[in-house]
Write a structure and sequence with these properties.
This is Oxidoreductase. One of its GO terms (molecular function) is FAD binding. With about 400 residues, the protein is of the alpha/beta class. It has one domain (about 15-360): FAD/NAD(P)-binding domain, CATH 3.50.50. About 35% of the residues lie in helices and about 25% in strands. It has 14 helices and 19 strands. Strand 9 (about 135-140) and strand 10 form a beta hairpin. The longest helix is centred in the last third of the chain and has 21 residues, at about 330-350. The radius of gyration is 21 Å and the shape is globular. The two termini are about 35 Å apart.
C-alpha cells in the first residue's frame, strides 16, 4: 500500500532519504528530516502501523521531542493510566507494591506501543511518502548514493538510507552482515497480547512471579493487556515471525504457573494478536557504513528494560539535526549523532541485570527479597531506587532546544 504526498520542487532539490521501519524511530525521523527540507520515503513491511507490543514510556528529552511535534496531547490521551506495580501471590494477595507515579517526571507518559507508533505515524504522514506492505530487498551503495530494490515497489535511488527496522533489522543485515555476533540473547523471552474488555484506567499493574517467570495484567485505554516474561536460554530455531511456535513456547513455559496464568494462556491459544520475542541487545562497533545508518533498536537495542522508545525518539531528533547541519557530509553527521547518542544508550545496556532482577527474580529467595524491599521502603524511596537504575547521564542536556 503506497501513500503519496505532493512534494515541493524546493524539497525535491535537496537530499532524498529512505527510512526502513514505521515503528517509533522511523516516523519521528521522517517528521524532523522533512522539517529540515529532506525528501523522505518510509518503507514498512507490515500492512499498517504496528498495533501490538508492551506498554512503553516516553520520558525525558523524548517528551520535548513529542511536544515540538505537536503530538504530546494525543500521547497523554492514550496513556495507560497505570498507578503502580502490585506484586501478588498465587491467590492474588498483595505481597509488594511500587508507585509508578512517583517514578515519572512532569509530562512523562506510559502508553501502549501500538498507540505511540500510530500517533507518530499520523503526525508524520503529511510530511513523508509511506510504502506499506513492502520492504528493502537489496542495497547497493556508491560514493554518491544508494540503489535500492524493494520486494514489491520498483527500484529507486536515494542519497541516504536509514534502518529503523528494529531488533531483526533487514537494513542492518544487508549493510553490516548477519545477526550472529551483533545480536545477543539476554536470557529472557517476552510476550504481550490484548485482552479486550472495558477499559478501566487508574489501576495498578498486577504481577505474579515464580522463579524465573513473571505474568501480569496491565491496564490500558482499550482494555487490559496480558504480559509474560520468562528466563530461558536461546531457543534453537527460534523465528520471531512464527506465531504458532510462539504459542507453543509460551504455553510450555507457563504451564506450571497459577494465579491467572491458565486463563491468560487460554486467551493466547486463540488470539490473532500476540507479540513474542527474545529480549536481546544489539551491540555494533559503529552505527553507519557509507551512506547507510541505523537508528533505534536496529543500532542499539537496549532490551525490554531500557527505554527503547524514548531513546528511538531522541536518537531520531539528534540524527535529523546532525544531517541538517552538514547535508553534504552525511558521514560526519552520522559520526556526531552516534557519539552523542551513545552517551544515552550505553548506560541503559549495562542496566539489564539490575532491572531483570526486579521484574523477574530468578529464585524464590530473590522474589521474597524484592517483595520485602517494596514493603519496607517508602514508596518514593523504592521508586527512586528503580529510577536510578535507568537514569541517563547527568551531563546530557535534559531538554531538546
Amino acid at each position: 500500500m503506497e501513500e503519496n504526498h505532493p512534494v515541493s520542487e524546493d524539497i525535491m532539490s535537496n537530499r532524498t532519504v529512505l527510512i526502513s521501519g514505521a515503528g517509533i524511530g522511523g516516523p519521528t525521523l521522517a517528521y524532523w528530516l522533512a522539517r529540515h527540507g529532506f525528501a523522505v520515503t518510509v518503507v514498512e513491511h507490515a500492512e499498517t502501523p504496528r498495533s501490538s507490543g508492551n506498554p512503553v514510556d516516553v520520558r525525558g528529552r523524548a517528551v520535548h521531542v513529542a511536544e515540538r511535534m505537536g503530538a504530546l496531547p494525543r500521547l497523554h490521551e492514550a496513556a495507560t493510566g497505570a498507578t503502580g506495580l502490585t506484586f501478588v501471590n498465587a491467590t492474588g494477595k498483595r505481597v509488594g507494591r511500587m508507585d509508578m507515579r512517583a517514578m515519572q517526571q512532569p509530562g512523562e507518559v506510559e502508553l501502549p506501543r501500538g498507540d505511540l507508533a500510530s500517533i507518530l505515524y499520523d503526525t508524520s504522514r503529511g510530511h513523508a511518502e509511506y510504502l506499506f506492505d513492502d520492504s528493502i530487498a537489496t542495497l547497493d551503495q556508491d560514493e554518491h548514493g544508494v540503489e535500492v530494490t524493494f520486494v514489491n515497489a520498483a527500484p529507486r535511488r536515494f542519497d541516504l538510507v536509514i534502518g529503523a527496522d528494529g531488533l531483526h533489522s533487514m537494513t542492518r543485515r544487508l549493510a553490516f552482515g548477519p545477526e550472529g555476533g551483533l545480536v545477543r540473547h539476554m536470557g529472557l523471552y517476552v510476550a504481550t497480547t490484548p485482552l479486550g474488555g472495558q477499559p478501566k484506567p487508574g489501576r495498578d499493574v498486577l504481577m505474579h512471579n515464580t522463579p524465573g517467570k513473571a505474568v501480569a495484567v496491565h491496564p490500558a485505554p482499550s482494555g487490559d493487556l496480558a504480559f509474560f516474561l520468562y528466563r530461558s536460554p536461546a531457543e534453537p530455531g527460534f523465528d520471531h515471525r512464527d506465531t504458532a511456535q510462539h504459542k507453543r513456547l509460551l504455553t510450555s513455559a507457563f504451564a506450571d504457573v497459577s494465579w491467572r496464568a491458565p486463563e491468560l494462556l487460554a486467551h493466547v491459544r486463540t488470539t490473532d494478536d500476540l507479540y513474542f520475542d527474545s529480549v536481546s541487545q544489539v551491540r555494533l562497533p559503529r552505527w553507519s557504513t557509507g551512506r547507510v545508518a541505523l537508528l533505534g533498536d536496529a543500532a542499539s537495542c537496549v532490551s525490554l528494560f531500557g527505554d527503547g522508545s524514548t531513546l528511538a525518539m531522541i536518537g531520531a531528533f539528534t540524527l535529523a539535526e546532525e544531517l541538517a547541519a552538514s547535508p553534504d557530509d552525511p558521514q560526519a553527521a552520522f559520526r556526531r549523532y552516534e557519539s552523542s547518542h551513545r552517551l544515552l544508550v550505553d548506560p541503559k545496556q549495562r542496566a539489564i541485570e539490575q532491572a531483570s532482577a526486579v521484574i523477574v527474580p530468578a529464585t524464590r529467595l530473590g522474589i521474597l527479597a524484592r517483595n520485602t524491599a517494596t514493603r519496607l521502603w517508602p514508596a518514593v524511596a523504592a521508586a527512586t531506587q528503580l529510577k536510578r537504575m535507568f537514569s541517563r547521564p547527568r551531563d546530557v542536556a535534559d531538554q531538546v532546544r
